[in-house]
């Protein structure tokens, strides 16, 4: 096993268990140009990065392109990561989500947007899940189920759908104020349900 | 305290999931974050929560992606850390990490061009091919690394993404694309530099995946428009159709 791979027992493969300080440490090695450390970071984060981007963009080729950009950016900008501002996993996932959303929102992508609902997407690789990941997923599912329908729909459309809260409000036929509030109190409930400690 | 029409705190959730598409509204909220300790710690927690949602849809990436990224990494220079040495002249704090993304599509475009070149080198098998590839890369690099080089990216209606990195000093540009449809035999994609005269910028060759190989076009003039058309094999002296990809460069 890789010398850098010393994640504490009990955390799943790359799961963000609260403060995943191990990943933080790896990123500080990456910032100093350690390619081996980067390979470990890649193995821990490429799945979530690709999965999230794929969920938002749907198109496999585009998703791969954006995921590659994001991961290369993690390498390039590792020195800008500041553990005081949040976990390494969150730093990376924030870049990934924003890049995906950027792609959706760029004015020229209007046509792609029409297309993406029609894109067929393979599900073969959905099968390969580890037990720990399933447990974590189960927890997220359970917490999502604890939200009100409007909270759940608002969060899902905004985060997985890449829609702005204005678009969410149009889609759900609720006022802007309501959607803003539902996204916020829904996320707060999720945070407390999953015991996120920040 | 600046008054908001609505309660600014209510935006923390939307902000954490990138659901604020109005740039001014987002800037205003970010300024608010700087002043409001409670808000920034709430945003932190909600962003961490969003990360769990991301892990929830994790899926194995394409197998080849790992090699591509690792090779690109081995040939990509990293950014230096932000050093706070100018704090005295500039009371403003360095940009927080959550704002870094707003910058530099240029850097990104460069990164994808570099990544593509790296892939091409990886594919050259014999020494001769390698020499040729290296000469090509030296030429491409002279544009990419020119001090005045800039990038422009466009996405065509069919989803094709084209990137131009150009240097007016070097009078040259590098064109790459992703997602171009394969052409029937007898047809070829041709690049054009369109100004007072229309000059050919060269023919595109298919590269790995859906990428075209980077094309180096010389003779660039300020204000040129870069266009792409489909032409008979071997290319033509003048385009026979209107370009379907158009990138206008600054004068």
Structure description:
The complex is a heterodimer of chains A (198) and B (251). Chain A is mostly helical and 198 residues long. In chain A, 66% of the residues lie in helices and 0% in strands. Chain A contains 9 helices and no strands. Chain A has helices spanning 21-31, 35-57, 60-76, 88-105, 110-116, 131-145, 149-160, 165-172, 176-194. In chain A, helix 2 packs antiparallel against helix 3 (60-76). The longest helix of chain A is centred in the N-terminal third of the chain and has 23 residues, at 35-57. Chain A is globular, with a radius of gyration of 18 Å. Chain B has helices at 12-16, 23-35, 37-56, 63-74, 105-123, 127-144, and strands spanning 150-155, 161-167, 172-178, 187-194, 198-203, 215-218, 225-232, 245-248. Chain B is elongated. In chain B, the strands form 2 sheets. A 4-stranded antiparallel β-sheet of chain B has the order 1-2-3-6, with helices on one face. Chain B has 251 residues and is an alpha+beta fold. Mean pLDDT of chain B is 80; it is low at 90-104. At the A-B interface, helix 2, helix 3, helix 4, helix 5 and helix 6 of A face helix 1, helix 3, helix 4 and helix 5 of B.
């Amino acid at each position: 096993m890789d010398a850098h791979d010393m994640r504490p027992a009990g955390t799943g493969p790359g799961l963000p268990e609260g403060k995943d300080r191990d990943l933080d440490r790896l990123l500080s090695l990456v910032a100093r140009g350690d390619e081996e450390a980067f390979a470990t970071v890649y193995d821990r984060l490429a799945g979530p990065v690709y999965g999230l981007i794929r969920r938002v963009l749907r198109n496999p080729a585009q998703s791969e392109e954006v995921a590659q950009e994001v991961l290369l950016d993690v390498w390039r900008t590792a020195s800008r990561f500041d553990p005081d501002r949040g976990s390494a996993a969150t730093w990376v996932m924030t870049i990934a989500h924003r890049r995906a959303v950027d792609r959706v929102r760029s004015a020229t992508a209007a046509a792609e947007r029409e297309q993406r609902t029609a894109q067929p997407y393979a599900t073969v690789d959905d099968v390969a899940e580890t037990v720990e990941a399933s447990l974590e997923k189960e927890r997220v599912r359970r917490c999502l189920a604890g939200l009100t329908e409007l909270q759940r729909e608002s969060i899902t459309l905004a985060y997985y759908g890449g829609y702005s809260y204005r678009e969410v409000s149009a889609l759900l036929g609720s006022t802007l104020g309501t959607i803003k509030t539902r996204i916020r109190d829904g996320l707060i409930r999720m945070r407390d349900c999953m015991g996120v400690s920040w | 305290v600046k008054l908001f029409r609505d309660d600014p705190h209510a935006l923390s959730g939307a902000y954490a999931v990138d659901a604020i598409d109005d740039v001014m509204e987002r800037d205003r909220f970010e300024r608010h974050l700087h002043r409001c300790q409670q808000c920034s710690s709430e945003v932190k927690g909600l962003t961490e929560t969003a990360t769990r949602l991301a892990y929830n849809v994790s899926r194995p990436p394409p197998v080849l992606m790992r090699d591509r990224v690792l090779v690109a990494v081995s040939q990509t220079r990293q950014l230096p850390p932000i050093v706070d040495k100018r704090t005295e002249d500039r009371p403003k704090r360095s940009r927080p990490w959550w704002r870094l993304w707003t910058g530099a599509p240029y850097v990104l475009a460069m990164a994808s061009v570099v990544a593509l070149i790296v892939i091409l080198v990886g594919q050259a098998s014999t020494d001769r091919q390698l020499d040729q590839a290296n000469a090509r890369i030296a030429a491409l690099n002279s544009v990419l690394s020119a001090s005045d080089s800039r990038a422009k990216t466009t996405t065509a209606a069919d989803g094709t993404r084209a990137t131009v990195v150009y240097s007016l000093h070097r009078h040259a540009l590098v064109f790459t694309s992703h997602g171009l449809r394969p052409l029937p035999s007898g047809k070829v994609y041709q690049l054009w530099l369109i100004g007072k005269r229309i000059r050919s910028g060269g023919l595109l060759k298919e590269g790995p995946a859906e990428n075209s190989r980077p094309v180096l076009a010389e003779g660039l003039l300020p204000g040129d428009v870069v266009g792409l058309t489909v032409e008979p094999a071997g290319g033509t002296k003048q385009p026979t159709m209107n370009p379907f990809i158009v990138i206008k460069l600054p004068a």
